[in-house]
Amino acid sequence: MLRLVCDSAQTLKEFTENNYAQASFFWSQLIKDKEIKVNGKKVGGDILLSVGDEVCYYLTKKQEEKPAYYAVYEDEKFFIADKESGVNAEAVFADISRKTGGRYAFIHRLDRNTRGLIAFARCGESEKELLSAFKEKRVEKAYNALCFGSFEKPVATLTAFLKKGGERALVKIFDKPIAGGEKIVTEYAVKEKRADGTTLVEVILHTGKTHQIRAHLAHIGCPIVGDMKYGDTDKNREKKTARQCLVAKKLRFSLSGAFSYMNGKIFESRFEV
Fold first, then answer.
1. Which end of the chain has fewer CB atoms < 10 Å from its terminal CB, N or C?
2. Burial, 37: exposed, middle or buried (Cβ in 10 Å; 0-12, 13-18, 19+)?
3. What is the pTM of this model?
4. CA distance 107 to 141
């Protein structure tokens, strides 16, 4: 059993997804079996929580042990996790904070259904350095994506403009500058063309905007397999997949001063697409 206390008004489902990944995995079953209690009372559906509400989760041992992430690297300054699909980055943050009782800081995030590497800082100095490194493009992030379609060139660096907002919180991509749009640069290299008509590519982000990879690849006619927001719905149904085949595969840092010991290390996700 895990007991948590709500710190802001939100739904029980939102609270669960942001604080306890294992319960999020088994949300429907837990609700059906009434294995979640709020302020001592069993609940059989999503409800609105208030600040100070006590939430208790009663998972089986097998449910508790389902990995939400794997530790890739850890020292007194950094923690690098390999996140599973279907897990909010906030839930990873909450879990490592609970388990160690130490100080952690968010530096960057991954979409819920994107697997792969995510870095956290463990002290104020490393937080400042990592934030600067991301801002100054001293962090190389490489992704693997399985896409429908055939890419026009084996290697290319794409430039476009991304605008947030609109229906279903989608972003839109434009080939030319537009009011409210942000410039994006996405590099790709084809790694494998598969017999089923899909293509495996490595993607390097030169800018890191919301849904950049997913939206940009869809914009050029090569949507990611399983992407239900920007992808090909009919083809996804044919493949019976509803989670994007996208992995944050590699991280490499170029840090300064006392943190330069991280330079030269390449951190790699265990996940494949």
1. N
2. middle
3. 0.91
4. 13
Q: Which two tokens stand for residue 112?
A: 């819920």
Give the closest residue to 180 by CA, choosing from 167, 200, 166.
166
Please report the sign of the dihedral spanned by the C-alpha atoms of residue 112, residue 97, residue 144, residue 211: positive
CA distance to 68, 96, 220, per residue, from 21 (Å): 6, 11, 34
Q: What are the C-alpha distances in Å from 121 to residues 44, 59, 67?
A: 38, 30, 21
- In 3D space, the residue among 103, 10, 109 whose CA is nearest the CA of residue 51 turns out to be 10
Q: How far is CA 27 from CA 58, 86, 97, in A?
A: 11, 12, 22
pLDDT in tens, 229-273: 999 999 999 999 888 999 999 999 999 999 999 999 999 999 999
- Classified as helix, coil or strand, 82 is strand
The two structure tokens encoding residue 6: 């709500």
- Helix (H) or strand (E) holding 145, with range, is strand 139-148
What does the block give as tokens for 103?
A: 């100080």
C-beta separation of 97 from 89 below 8 A: no
d(C-alpha 81, C-alpha 116), whole Å: 8
